[in-house]
Write a structure and sequence with these properties.
Belongs to the LysR transcriptional regulatory family. The protein is of the alpha/beta class and about 300 residues long. Helix content is about 50%, strand content about 20%. Strands 3, 4, 5, 6, 10, 11 and 13 form a seven-stranded mixed beta sheet that branches. Strands 1-2 form a two-stranded antiparallel ribbon.
């Protein structure tokens, strides 16, 4: 396969010489000096390996090989222009359409406000939101399926750039009638790890944060779940019914704690705080809409 491709600008210059019959006029059309244009054409002849022009005092004439090349050069330049126009259209669409993936907690409790603020500032932007667990957010961003992701985990996925957008805290919650809700002392980390909990699915930011926090603090893994459910809402229903305690984001249980449907239980020996992050491919710059959404997410929230 040929790798020494001719310079497209030189091909465009050659087309103009063929049209005008003059290197000087072609050079002026492209904003070049005649000497610079002549050097480019010399280089093009060397790259192609055939003589293209006969130069004399009356102007420049195409050689037979030059006439053959001229026909093909027009096709090549036209194809390049079509490519550039297509890429420009993609850039315009990227500025107008924003693909976002967010973990469930972020999507349910933070993203609606962020997207409302983005729409108010830039009503022409169309946002496509995918709600998946944190592990899948990282995969979607890494594979280029979305422009921007929001995760809730202690570790940053591979090959991704990140910006912190806040800090979340996990809370141990039970039904009001559970024995933990009536005890006068915190639940120790070892007891928490040994107790079957109602848990989110594997790969969720909430479950991953708990597993990592227990491993780093006490070197233990959580017991097998009492129940494994795919959403915060389902976990809360199971806990309020008395199935077992759970560990959930305080964002997810604010209402239930306020009206008494759930009780938060103090826990000792483990830090259950976690960063919330915006993530994007390290090899690309954020598009303008994505950068705007990150600025909204990182801005101080009104109290």
């Amino acid at each position: 396969m040929r790798r020494n491709w001719p310079d497209l600008a030189s091909l465009e210059l050659f087309l103009l010489v063929g049209s005008y019959g003059s290197i000087g006029r072609a050079a002026a059309e492209m904003g070049l000096t005649q000497a610079s244009a002549s050097r480019r054409l010399d280089t093009l002849e060397r790259e192609l390996g055939v003589p293209l022009l006969v130069r004399d005092t009356t102007g420049s004439r195409l050689t037979p090989q030059g006439r053959a090349v001229l026909e093909r050069a027009g096709d090549a330049v036209a194809a390049a222009e079509e490519l550039l126009e297509g890429v420009a259209a993609l850039r315009r669409r990227r500025r107008a359409v924003l693909g976002v993936a967010a973990s469930m907690t972020v999507a349910e409790y933070l993203m609606p406000g962020w997207l409302a603020a983005l729409r108010a500032a830039e009503p022409g932007i169309e946002v496509g939101l995918r709600v998946v667990n944190s592990e899948d957010v990282g995969d979607l961003v890494h594979d280029g399926a979305v422009d921007l992701g929001f995760i809730e985990s202690l570790d940053l996925p591979r090959d991704l750039a990140a910006a912190g957008v806040g800090t979340d805290r996990l809370a141990v919650v039970t039904a009001p009638g559970h024995p933990w809700a009536r005890r006068g002392r915190p639940v120790a980390v070892g007891e928490l790890a040994a107790t079957p909990l109602v848990m989110r699915e594997r790969g969720s930011g909430t479950r991953t944060t708990l597993e990592q926090a227990l491993a780093r603090t006490a070197g233990v893994e959580p017991a097998a779940p009492a129940l494994e459910l795919p959403s915060n809402a389902a976990v809360k229903v199971a806990v309020t019914s008395g199935a077992a305690p759970a560990v959930l984001s305080v964002l997810a249980v604010t209402g239930e704690l306020a009206d008494g449907r759930l009780r938060e239980v103090p826990v000792s020996g483990v830090d259950l705080r976690r960063p919330l992050r915006a993530v994007w491919p390290r090899r690309f710059r954020l598009s303008a809409p994505a950068a705007h959404l990150v600025r909204i997410a990182t801005a101080p929230q009104p109290r």
